[in-house]
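Below is how a single chain appears once it has passed through the pipeline. First comes the sequence as given, then the structure the pipeline wrote out for it. We keep one example in the README because the format questions we get most often are answered faster by looking than by reading.
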Amino acid sequence: MARQYETAKEELTNTREELAAIEKMSEAEACKLYNVERKAEIVAMLNEEVESLAKEVEYLAPEVYEYEFEY
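Resulting structure:
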């Protein structure tokens, strides 16, 4: 089934919120929660995911056609 705009947009929003939460965490807390060596690893991964999802949302965004009236 094809991915929908709303689904991709919601996932992007959730990923951004998760990234913001991680940035507020301590190094030890982030490492333990995400099972990584360094907090920067998960931050980099999520930044890449945000970029990818943003492109996908842009691609899936419905196009708005405005009629051009000639007077």
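The chain has a mean pLDDT of 91.

See the next section for the split statistics.
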